[in-house]
Each structure stands twice: as C-alpha cells, then as structure tokens.
Amino acid sequence: MSPRPADVLLSDGSVAVVRPVAPGDGPALHDLHASVSDDSFFLRFFGTGRRAAHAYVEHVLASRETLSLVACEGERLVGLATAEPTATDTYEVAFLVADDRRGHGVGTLLLEHLADLARSRGATGFTAEVLADNHRMLEVFTGAGFEVVRTGGGGECQVHLDIVDGSRAQAAADLREFAAERRSLRPLLAPRSVAVYGARRDGSGIGGAVLAAIRRDGFAGQVVVVRPDGAPVGDLPARRRLGDGPPVDLAVLAVPVGRVRAALEDAIAGGAGAAVVVSSGFGEMGPEGVVLQQEIGRLARRNGVRLVGPNCLGVLDNAPDVRLNATFGLAAPSSGGLALASQSGGVGIALVDLLDRAGVGLHTFVSLGNKVDVSGNDLLAAWYDDPDITCAALYLESFGNARKFLRFARAFGERKPVVAVVGGRSAGGQRAGASHTAASATPALGVEALFAQAGVIACQDAEELAETVTVLVGEPLPQGRRLAVVSNAGGLGVLAADAADDAGLDVVAFSPALQRELAGRVSRTTGWANPVDAGAGVDAAGLAGIAHTVLASGEVDALLVVLVATDTNDVAAALDELAAIRSAHPGRPLVVVPVGAEEAGREARTSGALTVMCSGRAAAAALGRAAAYAEWRRRPRDPMSPGDPARAHLAREEAAALLRDAGPDGWIGTAAASRMLDRFGVRLLGEVVPADRAAGTAARIGFPVAVKAAGADIVHRTERGLVATGLGNRDEVAAAVAGFGTARTAPVLVQPMVAGVEIALGVVRDATLGPLVMIADGGVATELSDDRILLVPPFSVGEAMAALRRMRLWPRLAGFRGAPPAAAGDLAATAVALGTLAVEVPEVAELDLNPVVVGPDDVAVVDLKLRLAHGVPVDQPRQLRPS
C-alpha cells in the first residue's frame, strides 16, 4: 500500500507535501532534472549528460520495484527521492532537490519518509554512492539520526545507513520539527501586526470585542481593520481588502460562519502568515459544519497559513514586547513564563482567572477550539526552545496524535514541566470487549498511562492545575519527597501532615540533634519532631528562625508553613521574614498558607516574594506532584529495543493470511496465535495437539497437567467448562477432553501445572491512543480487581518495572511474607515484547494473556486469546496533522 500524501514543515517553517510519485508527474520530474545547475546535476549523476537522467525518470515512472517520493510546494515539484532494491532487505537511495530549495530540509524530509516506506517493505538498510564533494548530501545522511557507515576513498564514497533502530532517528526528526514549528508559528505567537475581520462600525459584537481588547491592552504592533465596505470602526480606518496595504502577521476572523471562507481567502491573498478563526458554526454543529471546517483547513494548508480554531476564544501573546490580547472575554494578566493552551474557551477563561489570582504570570494563551490545524503538539514543539517559557499547561478534550504527544511532551518535560487536565475521562468511552483486556482498559487509564510515560503532571480539574502551576513556576523542584511542616496551630499542622502523606510526601521524623535545636525555638509547645508546632505566641523572627533551622539542616527537601492570624501575631511581618528565609535557601521549595490573613497573603503573592497557597491540602498536593515530576526527571532513560522491519513484514503477511481464514469476529486459534507471539519471544506454555493425542502428550510432558479447549471460537474457556486442571494420569486427561464435547481432531492445549503469582497481560487498541499494553491482577480476579495499569508502546523494561512498582500487587512479586521474589524483570520484558508486537503488527486488535504465572525463575504464559483486524501502522514520519 502506498503512503498517503503528507503535509510537512520545511526548516524555514513553510509547508510542503511529500507523496508518492504519480503517473502524471513525468513533465514536472523532467523539468526538475533539466532545471538544476550543472554542479547539482553532476553531484547527483556523476556526469553531465542529461539524457541518462531523463531515461531514469521514465524508469521511475514505470518501475513497480522502485520506491519513489516527491516533495511539492504548491503546484511545484521541488524534490525527488528514490530507493532501488539491491537485496531483500537493502535499497540504494538517491535524491535530487531544486537548487533554490536546497538547505530547507527537503532532502532530509524525503529521507525520513523513504526510510519509513522501506521499513514497511521489510528493509533494514540503505546504501548510497556519493561524491566526496557532495557535502550537503553527506550531511543529510549523517544528521538524520541513523547509524551511518562511510567507506571508500578518493572522489567517491559508499554510505550505508542502518534504518532498523528508528528511535534515534525519530528523536532527531522531532528536534528538527520543533525548530520548524517555532518558525512556522512565529506569526501567531509573536506577531508584529494584526488584522481584525468582523468588527462592526459601532464596535459591538465579538469582532469589536477582540479589537477593543487589542487596543486596550497595549499591543506593540500595527492594528488593521478589514471591512468590505471600508467603513471605519471608531477612530480606526478600515481596508476593504487586506491587500490594500502592507501584509500582516496575523489575521483574526470574527465574521459569521458563511463569510469565513471569503475572509480567509482575503487574508491569504493579503499576505497574512497565520489566522485565528473565532467564529463558531463548524465541526461542533454536525456533518455540514465538519465539511466547512475541512474546507477552511485545507485552504489555509494549501497556502502555508497556520490556522487556530475555528470556534475559539482567540490568542493572547503576553510577552512584554508584544502584548497582544486578541480574545473576547479576557483581560491581559501579568506577564510571566507560563504558556497555556485550552481546547475549551470557558475553561481557558477560568484558568487565566485562577492563575492571575494566584500571581502566576502568563506568557502565552492559545484557545485551540476545534483544532483544524494548530494543536497542543504544535504548541509544545514551538515552545520547546523558547527561553522565556518555563512551564506549559494544557486543557485537552482529545488527542489528534497521541503517540506524537507522548514524544513531544516527554522531550518538553525533560527541560520544563507540562501540566495537563483532560476532560471527558469518564466511562462513556469504554467499550465492553470480549476479553479481559478490552473490558479493563478505560479511556481514563489510557490517558493516565500516556501522561505517566511522558512525564506530564496530571491534574483533575482547573483548580488543581492552577495550584500545581503556582508551585512549579514559583519554587525550585524538590530534590526528594521529605517535607517539613511548620505551623503556629498544632491541629492545622497535623492536617497538613496528613495531606502530605496522601500526596505521597514523607513528613520525616527529625534527627535528635535537630529536635534539640528546635526545642529551644518553639513557644510553649513540645511539637518539635515534625510537624513542628511553633506555638500560638511565636513572633515573626521566631518563626523565621525555625524555618531557617529546618531548611539548613539538610534533613528535608521542602518546607510547608501554615500560619494562622491571631490577635497576638503580625502575619505581614512574618511573611516578610519568611520571604528573606526563602531567598537564603533558593534550592528548596518554601510554600506558605496564611489562614485568616487574606490581605497579607495577597500582597506577598502579588510581590512574588513568596509562594502563597489557599490551604494546606492544596499546597501539599501541589508539592507532591512537583516531587513526583522531579523524580521522573531524575530517572535514567533506558534505551528502547530496536524494531525488526523484516520480522514485522513477515508477521503482517502472516496476520493478513490468518485474517482471510478467520471468522467475522477475527478470533484466532490458539496454535496460530502462539506462532505469532513466538516471533516476538513470547512462548505459550505446553503444546497444542488434536484431542485424541492429548493423553499421550500429557504423559510425555509429565503429570499433573491442565488441558483446555483451544479452538478459535472459544474466548472465555473457564465459564464454558472447557478447562480441567490437576489431572494426574492418562485416563483423567482422556475423560476431561471427552467432557469438552469436541471432535477427535479439535485442538487441545496440554500444559504442565505451574505455580507463582498470577498476572494478566494484554493488548488493546484505543481509537485515540492507539495500542496499549495492560498489566493487571491475573486469573479470575482481573475483572473484579481495579489493580491494573496501561503502558503506551514502545516502552523500555525500566518503564515497565516502574509501572509494576506502582501496582498494589507489587509486594507479591517482590516476595510477600517470606515467599521468594518472582521474576519481575522477565515479566517486564514480556510486556515490552507485547508492546513491540502491537506496534509492528497493527492487525493485532486484541490480545489477552491470562493468567501469566510468574515464578521465581521464569514467566509462564498459561493462556492466550488473539483477535485480528485490519489495521494501519501507528507511527508516521514527520508531518502535520491532516487538514
């Protein structure tokens, strides 16, 4: 199957298309070969005679074996990449790019897409003959991220690229995409001029509100009003068409839905680099609106214009040198380092308000709306290298490309935190499947898995997000989970300590030496162990002294102070003293909860001198999330196991053959399913044999044994009485098989009895998140227990082990009550293998291994069920979301 055309970003941020060569490309391909300079032609063909080049074009157009892709900008074909098979797993590649488009990443993009296409055919390597003077081509090969071996001398060299391990190449491609996204979105995220469509003459309506906000909040650039009648809006003159004057960076469209396309066409013709469609009435309104939405998305994409919305609140670019508030309903908050994106305008308004009240400065706010083009992934990419952005916060209701989100958020999170809330996590999206795995994998669990692996700090609602961001932008990351709680009211200190425990923090007992020192500082209490009860009579200096002593001790990683206003203390003075202590200990978080002193707390918050929270529970929870994120940052990254294109190609061919013979539900017999898993190193315990050979096989394996019916139409064997265990001789086996009521030649699984910890492993495909690997409590408890976790493949053994340690069943694997530890590492490796299978063979729709018995020395897969369905590869080479 040929790949679909893909919209891509060149290195300068412009939009191109990579697609397979089409029969009608002949004239354009001949023009490309005729138009390049003599030097470029010589570097490609090692000669100057162009007749051979035109003959090669005809070969490419006619050949079914040659893999060929072109890059186009608009109607112009600007690049060609070809791969000629030289062996069953190797292709020789060559590239030609128009002279004026060299240095814009065309060749690199073609290489990435060509490698993906070749891997789908089972290829493991590329070769190329390159002139030593062709430095650009050599840089493309060495910079792509593949393992490159260069041989030969003199004027020519041979290059071999190992395209099997795509993880390093993917990481390199992502970094290139980050840079391209930042350039592409510059007109949106840092505009120097803006045009507003839809403002009424009297300034009313949504367009008028957007225009008023732009002017009110001090936009630093030029403001243009576009009205077809040319009538001014207040004191602002209007253009009839944007093209009647100089072009602008950004166009904001707030016109009725029926006029959006015409307004967008005018903005494109007038040279706008990006557009925000505030107007509603598109995809949210049903099929007709979806069509209109797709039309404007494609129009913008064809012309290289990035588009936000439709059906959105607008954008706010709050950098001091921009100050653009192109929204309706928002007042520009203070400037800071937080970048915020929200798929809901209403949630966006709530978040901006909560963050402003918490004293968190905002750098950027983007209301994503229906996400016809610009998405959270695009914004994370553009924000990745921005030194002025220190934290990203997202409210999402859908994932256009969840696997790309995983990569982008993980890369972003390794530098600076990503905090997110996802709406619509309820069981409404749950599918009742035929296997344990499908029944257990809820959308909420999938999002939890996605966030855990990406290092995204998950919050339940807008308030939690604002509280967490307040700590993240105001304080350093904790270096551990040790927390000290200091209060001047013992009961509130106890409650804060309880909240800290709930948040996964450790309210550690202080050393005897530290307790002795604190005993001399508290006021008429004995609370110096942690939490510290400083006493109602403690003054500002005394409280600051306690805070300094605790932070200087090295025994804690963070400090939470709960300060209650009384008639005998000066909260404002205490906050000033604590601000000085915070400055003296910049490496450890210090969070203050003033109770009954709102004005003093507000002043401290506004000045930025302290991080002030509204309650001890909120502060502890936010610190707990920050500590968990810091742990994720410190965790070593295990390398991913490389894929195997040849294995994947053969496995997909086998899956296609099995599907042709399978029933309408796609369930596969045990023997065939076992062969599929065996390719990936996962072996089913025992043997599948005809029913009349079960007794003899059992005698050879050794008693006691278990026997199970193994037909393709059998899913839940236990419920149907098709499992017999603990059989001690041939007669018992024969009787059990006869009781199944199957034919003499029907398949039966014969297994030795094994003991250990029962686990369930499985694979399920989510419509949004793609393949997911489940680990859960095994046996009949799978559907009763809620102890389960999902992982988004591919993942490493280390990530699987971290997931296992978060489960309640972990003590049983670690060796509970004197039992020997189970082979948890082998279990993690089995989960990794299932993830590889799920990625490489998209036809695997549902897989259930239950139970998997984990003993001290090995892992035994006792039962398996596999359902196949037609699928497409989950990973794609670098490209924009389809418009």
From TrEMBL:
Native source species: Nocardioides aromaticivorans
TM spans (from-to): none
InterPro entries with a match to the protein in the record: Acyl_CoA_acyltransferase (IPR016181), ATP_grasp_subdomain_1 (IPR013815), CoA-bd (IPR003781), GNAT_dom (IPR000182), NAD(P)-bd_dom_sf (IPR036291), Succ_CoA_lig_flav_dom (IPR032875), Succinyl-CoA_synth-like (IPR016102)
GO molecular function: acyltransferase activity, transferring groups other than amino-acyl groups; ATP binding
Domain N-acetyltransferase span(s) in chain numbering: 16-164
A Pfam family: CoA_binding_2
Cross-referenced CDD domains: NAT_SF
Protein name: Acyl-CoA synthetase (NDP forming)/GNAT superfamily N-acetyltransferase
Keywords assigned by UniProt, alphabetized: Transferase
Coiled-coil zones: none
UniProt xrefs under PROSITE patterns: GNAT
